[in-house]
Write a structure and sequence with these properties.
This protein is mainly alpha-helical and 238 residues long. It has one domain. Helix 11 packs antiparallel against helix 12. The radius of gyration is 21 Å and the shape is globular. This is Ferric oxidoreductase domain-containing protein. It comes from Adlercreutzia wanghongyangiae. Keywords: Membrane, Transmembrane, Transmembrane helix.
Amino acid sequence: MRFIVALVLSFALIWACAKPLKKHPAPFYVGAIALVGLYIWGTSVGVRGEMWSMFQPLMQRCALAFLLFSIVVFVGVLGEKSALRVRLMPIRRQLSILGCIFAAGHIVFYGSSYVPRLSSAFSGNLAFSLGLAALITALMAVLCVTSFQIVKHGMSAAAWKRVQRLAYPFYLLMYVHLALLLMPSALAGNQVAVISIAVYSVIVSAYAVLRVAKALGDRAGSTAAARTADLDLESAAA
């Protein structure tokens, strides 16, 4: 329950801060880096407490980063007049960068655990997990760098759009990675892990349905427009 409450509060904060995030993103980036530092420090010294029990899963389980990336992809499949799209579409780029910053905390935490085991990692499930994590990290790095305006302006529009399409496989691979990461704890009966997988699965399933629906709608619209154009040409020729 605390996990869901933390996600709801995080989304409410994003909604409330949409306009200042658009105008002045730098302080938010600095704040995100500070939170990652707090998480790494608190984990290393063993901080405990009610507030920490809500904050720690958001960082360690990559929940906050996943929430931000989910908003970024969901906004793209919502209707043009959707209140959610109107409110959050202008800050997709900033949310992507924030998501990358928070994901970095997750990478540092688990990287510090697995790097010492690299000599024996290239076999079985651990090899697959590390390979998948490396691929996701590479995709995230590319998406993060190209989210900055200075980089975007140095690319052609077509090239930038091609790169940004990597967001779709990145998002789905991130879900697979998190599900695999949480599965052992979930199977052992850890309630937070079970809830986390359930929440991630519902979100990704909803996105997949909306993505397919939008693609079909766009295709139908294109077909109708083409037919209308053909009829106009026939009328003009007649």
